[in-house]
């Protein structure tokens, strides 16, 4: 049985997942794009090592910040775990706010490894020149990318070079029918309650040493490192001389904006039962699992 716990940031997804896993002897599979990094700890609100060791867990802390890890990699890793448990009665619990990861793992997406021959990034060529080239080759693809997002422009050009059809690649990433049956709950909260929760969590992160974590990682991994684009990390790097209060305001704002995007994505992309009360969500999932076990007996 596969269970998915999705939802907005700071909604208590991890807490629910661990409670459920302990109650039904389940396995937890991370579905958060930044919890995969070993060295992102405070700013990702990642489960503690004690929590991670309390039940079987997968895909937490698996790569360094300077390693590449794509949706394709996640799809392969997640499906390998599903295969490992396919002949057992162990419930698998996917938990996280990265909806694309969940869809890539459980739905009929055809993905390919990252292009082995990316477009060489010539610093002498401006963002505008690269963007104009993309416009000429594929206006529809260019319309979905900001003219200053150099990394995405180069990626789009690399796909065009390899496949000659960026839109076909994008189409393959769209949702299709699930490959695996699953039950899903999505967690949300009253906007004011969520705003207060986000602000308290951000304040706690700074008190626990988020600045020092960010500074150490930025020194260890200078340059354009994907992991350091996580909310909290990129804001501190760009505003390292600002006060804690300034950073709390800014990081909280960015986190609320993320929650809004997550809410929209989960509503449009999944068939799910929504909860703003985690205890009710836990009771619902335990009851569904009980029904699943009873069905298996007959």
- In this structure, how is the largest beta sheet organized? 6 strands, parallel
Q: Provide the spatial order of strands within the biggest beta sheet.
A: 3-2-4-1-5-6
Helix content: 40-55%
| Uncertain residue ranges | none
The assigned CATH architecture of the largest domain is 3-Layer(aba) Sandwich
Straight-line N-to-C gap = 16 Å
Number of helices: 13
What is the string of SSEs from the N terminus onward?
A: EHEHEHEHHHHHEHHHHEH
Q: What overall form do the CA principal axes indicate?
A: globular
Number of self-contained structural domains: 2
Instruction: Supply the helix-strand structural class.
Output: alpha/beta
Assigned CATH class of the largest domain: Alpha Beta
CATH superfamily of the largest domain: P-loop containing nucleotide triphosphate hydrolases
What would the CATH topology of the largest domain be?
Rossmann fold
Average predicted confidence as pLDDT: 90
Strand content: 5-15%
Structure keywords:
298 residues, 2 domains, alpha/beta, globular, 13 helices, Rossmann fold
What can you tell me about this protein's structure?
With 298 residues, the chain is α/β, with parallel strands linked by helices. It has two domains: 2-111 and 181-297, Rossmann fold (3-Layer(aba) Sandwich); 127-171, no CATH class. 52% of the residues lie in helices and 8% in strands. The protein contains 13 helices and six strands. It has helices at 13-24, 49-52, 71-84, 99-106, 127-137, 139-143, 150-163, 166-172, 191-207, 210-220, 233-238, 244-269, 278-297, and strands at 2-7, 27-30, 57-58, 92-95, 182-187, 273-275. The protein has a six-stranded parallel sheet with strand order 3-2-4-1-5-6, with helices on both faces. Helix 2 (49-52) links the parallel strand 2 (27-30) and strand 3 (57-58). Helix 1 (13-24) runs parallel beside helix 13 (278-297), helix 3 crosses helix 4 (99-106) and helix 5 (127-137) packs parallel to helix 7 (150-163). The longest helix is centred in the C-terminal third of the chain and has 26 residues, at 244-269. The mean pLDDT is 90.
